[in-house]
Design goal:
two-stranded antiparallel ribbon; 5 strands; about 15% strand; about 120 residues; alpha+beta; 2 helices
Length: about 120
């Protein structure tokens, strides 16, 4: 029997296998599939949130969302689920906008050689 134990599932980041951000049309297709699944989807992944009324990213608030998440589950394109932690280092993880960001996960999926975002 399926039972909810947290109220909802919070997705932090959904990307291509090489870590490149999705375009809006790709993101909407994934959201529709997730919303119709047993997992459900109540809101977009945190990596794409705009946090200010003028629709710009607030870097400090974005970092806070990822830091406070603590250790999270990562489901890699290799089919392995891992316990990972956000790397809070601005040279390794950064947010410019929903199409230009990089999130590095300690213990996370290694990008394939030659993969380009």
């Amino acid at each position: 029997v399926w039972r909810s134990f947290t109220g909802d599932v919070d997705f932090l980041q959904i990307t291509h296998a090489n870590g490149a951000p999705l375009r809006d049309v790709q993101r909407v297709a994934i959201y529709k599939k997730l919303a119709a699944s047993a997992t459900g989807l109540l809101h977009p992944e945190s990596a794409t949130w705009t946090l200010l009324k003028n629709s710009t990213f607030n870097f400090e608030q974005k970092i806070n969302e990822f830091v406070r998440a603590g250790i999270v589950a990562q489901f890699g394109p290799d089919g392995v689920a891992r316990a990972v932690k956000f790397v809070n280092d601005r040279k390794r993880s950064y947010f410019i906008n929903k199409y230009n960001y990089r999130i590095e996960w300690e213990g996370g999926y290694a990008y394939p050689q030659g993969a380009l975002p």
